[in-house]
Amino acid sequence: MAAITIYDGAESIGGNKIYVEDNQRGVFLDFGMNYARRSAFFVDFLNERAVRGIHDMLYLDIIPRINVYRQDLLTSDVEPLIKSYPKVSPEAVLLSHAHTDHNGNIGLLDHGIPVVASATSIAIMKAMRDIKSSGLGGDIAYSTLREKDKNNSNLLKTEGSKYQGRQFCYAGKCNPELSEFISDKPGSGGRNAKKLDGCGLEALGKKELPFEIKPFEVNHSIYGAMAYTLRSNNTSLAYTGDFRIGDNAKQLPDFIKEAKNSSVLIIEGTRTGRSGDMDVTETNVYDTCKATSDDVKGIIIADFSARNFERLEIFKRIAREIGRQLVITAKDAYYLYAIGCAAGTCSTDGLLVYDELKDKKACKYETETLAQDCPVEYVRNHEIKDNPDGYILCMSFYDIKQLLDIEPRGGAYIYSSSEAYSEEQEIDFEKLKNWLELFSIEPHGFTFDNGKPKFIKGFHASGHATGEELERVIDAVDPDVLIPVHTQNNGWFKEKWEQTRLVKNGETIEI
Ligand SMILES: [Zn+2]
């Protein structure tokens, strides 16, 4: 018997955790963080307590109540609970892409569960962990092992700095250098040092899994996004992950061709619920941002979401065309280096890295790995201050404090990212407004209307398919069963396709 259980992500944007099984053998499609659920309880400095392992997330139903998690994250009070939950034994997680709403809980899974992903996604996940541990669930490539405190077994402590790595299987092409990159922890003494325990990289084709799996590159707002088809004796299924068609339709036909042979289609529906959605492509974004940048006097700051390297390429092109140099953060340089390891190219060429005034002791990825393997050219605050017309700075709201050292007078802040969807995000814009006023920098991409940010069309393109694009894909695939996920409006599908199955979180359907 084959079955699908959607543990999470059925009725929210993100948090996908979809278990597909046949004959008691199965795989997860993504294992992401459900931010909507998490933000119902946590904010800023109110967080899950790592010393309690997975307790808080389990208690608050931020993660599903199943027996699948790392043993070293179970405190004494959680252990019997976990034993009482259904045992799920995935043989792999097939990751669609490296956004945290799709991978942000993988770090909680037993270390023996490998992750299948594109080489680019693997590189990004490893770089993310090297830059900073983003909590237990985000420790995907490797994590610090924990043990129960001898004085109180409901508390966990770390066993010195013993790291445990995870196995990856790359789907599609991969440069051999990636293998070296994923087993090397920055700061552990360079390439001759001891490699991370448990790390490994092999080709998807070499791995014996319960399904025949085919990966397909898709276009999304992060490089390395994949759709998958899965086939076994009893079932066949296609999963889109997050995708868009936009002005890059060339990748999708292969997936559609293969998906046509699948009886089940699991598809994302992010934009079906967003009213007044704007239809903008990356080409439009280039045109708008280029026109805005053309006559700017003073500094240009480009703000786009973290790890959106396609957008970075757009600003690199604009910088070249208007005779400025593109300046990125050391973090972004490290991501580009990581992606370069996966692709066998060097993607930091022609870029400058901002030499932030910071204590670099904790930045081994920068002072050791980048310095040794991918030396970058730095630019310092006073150089930008003396010649603000010479640069485009790629910085986000959280980097804005750097302006205190650069002290610009005038210029443009180009906001090239998604609208504020929450009150917290709106509050960030109020603060951004104060910063920009302080340095007389003109905002582009948003204005203020009655104290609330209002977003201007053309500066940002969504990473998700429009309703019309979804229709095209679904009609072309013509599945027997259609399961929408990653949406707040699954009724949109039900109205249009009678084969739609609305599955609730935690529900299992036979296929
Ligand atoms: Zn995504």
Automatic annotation (TrEMBL):
InterPro entries per the UniProt record, alphabetical: RibonucZ/Hydroxyglut_hydro
The name under which this protein is listed is Uncharacterized protein
**In which organism is this protein found?**
Methanocella paludicola (strain DSM 17711 / JCM 13418 / NBRC 101707 / SANAE)
